[in-house]
């Protein structure tokens, strides 16, 4: 393959495809994010944590995005970082806590830790499938 007069082996191009970091589909030349995933991220950034989940759904629909496109981006973990869904949950929990007069201290990493613990059956006071302990008052 020839590129600007340079001879490049086709195997180099096949080994290093420009894939979207969220959905792993082709993103284009020198791009890390494809168009649909970029639109999801733009909606989330525009909302800035100021709208709830119902408001975000309306914004995604107005942008012409499908649920599958949105879920792929919200649940992606590029580099092992917390997902966008974790960040949104953290922002909403902190806004709720501040609205109740308490300091909001929920970080995206905290949400990620809770989410991962829930996948394994939870990290609460009893094991999944057992009866919960009696409350003492």
What report would you give on this structure?
The protein is mainly α and 137 residues long. The protein has one domain. It has six helices and two strands. The chain has helices at 10-15, 35-47, 53-62, 67-75, 84-99, 108-119, and strands spanning 2-3, 6-7. A two-stranded antiparallel ribbon has the order 1-2. A hairpin with a 2-residue loop joins strand 1 (2-3) and strand 2. The termini are far apart.
Quick recap:
The chain has 137 residues and is mainly α. It is 48% helix and 3% strand.
Given as residue ranges, the uncertain stretches (5+ residues, pLDDT < 50) are: 11-15
- Terminus-to-terminus distance: 76 Å
Question: Number of DSSP helices?
Answer: 6
Indicate how many domains the architecture comprises. Answer: 1
Q: Could you tell me the strand content as a percent range?
A: under 5%
Look at the structure and give the mean pLDDT.
81
Class derived from helix and strand content: mainly alpha
The radius of gyration is 21 Å
Order of helices and strands: EEHHHHHH
Helix content: 40-55%
Give the SSE layout:
Blueprint: E1 2-3, E2 6-7, H1 10-15, H2 35-47, H3 53-62, H4 67-75, H5 84-99, H6 108-119
Antiparallel strand pairs: 1-2
Helix pairs in contact: 2-4, 5-6
Name its key features:
137 residues, 48% helix, mainly alpha
